[in-house]
Amino acid sequence: MPCCLAAPHALLRTLRSATRPPDAVSAVNLELVTLTEDRAVITWHTGVSSEGEVVYGTHPAHLNRTASEGRDTAHHHVELTDLEPGQTYYYQARSHGSAATPTPLHLVKGNAVGTSLYGFGSHGGPYSFTTPQPPPGRHLLSIALCNDLHLGETTAGLVTGVPLMRGISQRLGLGPYPEIMGRALVEEAHRRGARQLLAAGDISAGGAPRDLTEARHLLDGFGTHGQDYFVVRGNHDRRGRQEAQDQQGLEEGRGDTFLDAFPAHGGPGGESAYFARDLGGLRIIGLDTYEKRGNGAGSGGLSDEQLAWFRADVRAHKDQPTVVFGHHPLTVRNSPFPVTSGQRLNRRQARTILDAYAAAPGVFLHHAGHTHRNKRTVLPQARHVTLQEVGAVKEYPGGFCLLRIHTGGYALNYYKASGGPAREWSERSRRVAAGLWPQYALGRSVRDRNSVVVRDLSGITPTVTRRPALRGPA
């Protein structure tokens, strides 16, 4: 580095060291992850194990309430409870005398720490958020929305031909990160009260039978496939065995490793990976958005047969409350990174699906993965449908979205996995894309990962099912 640049940086470090208490720690990457009507989840990082607390209140000069973790850690995760709906709160997160500073979202002009810009420009806040009103009516059920587990992957963020995307690997001696994050997903979804779980593709890193078998074992810890949880194919879950059979003339098996692990449930017949199911008045439609030959690249695609089935099903149940999930999103907007056609569903087919939604007032949510980011989109063609992209399970921010359905509306709330090994990997994997990954994956605003919609969902009458006990690894 030229000396003309090195000197100011060295001087700045010296000044900071001189003004910081000798036992202080560096508290960074502050994020307001989850915001509901009565709670908030706040995370930050200190690099070394230290105490962590959040002081908060309804006036910036009177932070008279405290929440802490009760133990020292480098990966801080504090939950504020018993908040009042519609109330503005001010808070500051601290570790060992140092106030935590926000994750910078300057590339997207975003806000990682609040619902207003209060506190920006200061060193450590306090920052501000306003709790939403809850969805009206009685709570009916909660569903975990997740995607991109990538069982079998060993390097996160690796993209061939993109210099910044060299990837991050797990530390030596620690378990495979997709398994750590997958188990944390199951545990956290149970803890947050999810009755069902929808996994929107890229369950494996490449469709290998052993990885899909491990994914099945892991998700079986949540409950019963086809009853408690549902899975659709992503581009990484491609038909690897089918292509090998075409080349070798083999006849054994279905020719589809994904369906070997996750047999069709509620589909239109045959060995399809798309389906529809009724859950006590709520209709669930799962789409196979990579129903084509390929190596996992290129845009998503539905067969003509699947698209015709989907349009007919939506038309036949146009007034029934419906959630659709599939791997590729219908649109990709507001990305700080270059967007290619491979990040979305085929444009013509996406337009056809949106046209079907426009004539089906019962559809209220379309959940997608693939982009590995949190992003809420509402399009003019179908304003009654929320298009929700959810961040990947397997890497930063490392979690899932909880859909809470009430008789008068619904809420979407993103939760990071809170277990210790999961927190550690999530922090390590934020270094993907030369450390720019949070600018893309977290969501540019709290609303991208937490929202409330008012609408009549009183027709849903969930059946009572026994919650399975958590199952550990074999």
From TrEMBL:
<dbReference type="InterPro" id="IPR029052">
    <property type="entry name" value="Metallo-depent_PP-like"/>
</dbReference>
<dbReference type="InterPro" id="IPR051918">
    <property type="entry name" value="STPP_CPPED1"/>
</dbReference>
<protein>
    <submittedName>
        <fullName>Metallophosphoesterase family protein</fullName>
    </submittedName>
</protein>
<dbReference type="InterPro" id="IPR008963">
    <property type="entry name" value="Purple_acid_Pase-like_N"/>
</dbReference>
<dbReference type="InterPro" id="IPR004843">
    <property type="entry name" value="Calcineurin-like_PHP"/>
</dbReference>
<feature type="domain" description="Calcineurin-like phosphoesterase">
    <location>
        <begin position="142"/>
        <end position="373"/>
    </location>
</feature>
<keyword id="KW-0732">Signal</keyword>
<dbReference type="InterPro" id="IPR003961">
    <property type="entry name" value="FN3_dom"/>
</dbReference>
<dbReference type="InterPro" id="IPR015914">
    <property type="entry name" value="PAPs_N"/>
</dbReference>
<feature type="domain" description="Purple acid phosphatase N-terminal">
    <location>
        <begin position="27"/>
        <end position="99"/>
    </location>
</feature>
<dbReference type="Pfam" id="PF00149">
    <property type="entry name" value="Metallophos"/>
</dbReference>
<dbReference type="Pfam" id="PF16656">
    <property type="entry name" value="Pur_ac_phosph_N"/>
</dbReference>
